[in-house]
């Protein structure tokens, strides 16, 4: 059972033979992760969600916007269930 979802940004490390994504919690949540989060909320329902941002903190408005985006997805799911 899913009881909480954590969303965070990542850093891309590129190498000659490819790249890897490192869960660094220092960037905005990327569009692909938002899409996956939307699917998860559709499947599991509204679940408490935490935006993780540990280093390279942006302006407060950026952090609030990330939280508001998660809230909007949760509210959309709640409205569909009603």
Molecular structure report:
This is DUF692 domain-containing protein. InterPro entries: MbnB/TglH/ChrH (IPR007801). It comes from Candidatus Contendobacter odensis Run_B_J11. The protein has helices spanning 31-44, 60-81, and strands at 5-8, 11-15, 18-22, 49-52. It has one domain (5-81). The protein has a two-stranded parallel ribbon with strand order 1-4. A two-stranded antiparallel ribbon has the order 2-3. The protein is of the alpha+beta class.
Largest sheet: 2 strands, parallel
Q: Structural class per helix/strand content?
A: alpha+beta
Order of helices and strands: EEEHEH
Distance between the termini: 22 Å
Taken as a percent bin, the fraction of beta residues is 15-25%
Indicate the topology.
Blueprint lengths: L4 E4 L2 E5 L2 E5 L8 H14 L4 E4 L7 H22 L1
Parallel strand pairs: 1-4
Antiparallel strand pairs: 2-3
Helix pairs in contact: 1-2
InterPro entries: MbnB/TglH/ChrH (IPR007801)
Protein name: DUF692 domain-containing protein
Pfam family, one: MbnB_TglH_ChrH
Tag the structure with descriptive keywords.
82 residues; alpha+beta; two-stranded parallel ribbon; two-stranded antiparallel sheet; 2 helices; 44% helix; 22% strand
